[in-house]
Amino acid sequence: MNGHPLTLSILQYKSLQEITGLLANRYQPEGIICFGYKNRQRQSAGCFASHVNSESCHYFLLLITKENARIEHEVQEFVDHRYRNGKLTILAHGKETVGEGIARGNLFFTSVCRYGFQLYSSSGLCLCFDYPEENFETNLAECSSNAYQRLEMASSFLTAAEKSLYEEHYAACLFLLHQVVEQACLALIRLFMAYRADTHNLSRLLELTECFSESAAYFPRELPEDQRLFRMLMKSYSDCRYKDAFEINDEDAQSLFKRVSGFFAALKSLCHNRLEDETAKENVQEQVFSALPVGSNSTENPMVHVPED
Prior knowledge:
The chain has helices at residues 10-27, 72-80, 95-103, 107-115, 136-166, 170-193, 202-209, 224-242, 250-276, 281-290; strands at 31-46, 49-65, 87-94, 117-121. It folds into 2 domains: 10-45 and 52-121, Beta Polymerase, domain 2 (2-Layer Sandwich), CATH 3.30.460; 136-289, Up-down Bundle (Four Helix Bundle (Hemerythrin (Met), subunit A)). The protein is an alpha+beta fold. InterPro entries: HEPN_dom. Pfam families: HEPN.
């Protein structure tokens, strides 16, 4: 694995100082590490408006807690209500979990702790771990195998969703579309970050993919109509099974099927390009894509400020 140390500008570091302090005071963690960020710049001008430049930044953090109890959702809600300088996506794991992962050669924890930008440590010193010799080819094969299994499931779910749509079983179609996005995101995150995500929350999964791709753009959420459709898709995991009065019309089902199909096709292309960049691709590439439907949608190159596997 050829990692690249992450650096932050003085302005970026200052923009994270307040929330870092709040997290440290509230949760008393062992450490806080920034493992990626993505800048978004906007310009506006016109005959009736002044020229305006604006910039926002999406940061990705790992909170290393003293205990192994998972508090990730609580911590994410905490920062969502307090951070106003951009956007934060935060993962939380115990020090023991992180240390054991590094000892086993876990690529995610190794990359973040070795190459990420340390924002805080309880001791005031650099966080120290014993890093074993990296077995790049074995780890890539494991991540690729897991991604293959999830992509194959996603492909099967998409086929079933199309059949349900054709037969006008719209609730079943929506539930299956949720499964497509969930499994596809899990595959993408595992392949690019070597991280084993374990949530059904599509919003959170898509936020994690923003660390290395533009895949989330297939589900825009700026307009009220886009927000309504995404909420329907996100809630379908439980609503389709437990809400007797749940209904979805043909137009919404068609619209969501189109978006999910485009997302999955682009994701397959992104995974293919990722494997082409890796030295061990010959051992896994044929297996990963032989069972998947062809998707020709092109995607942008990953805009990543995160350690490379």
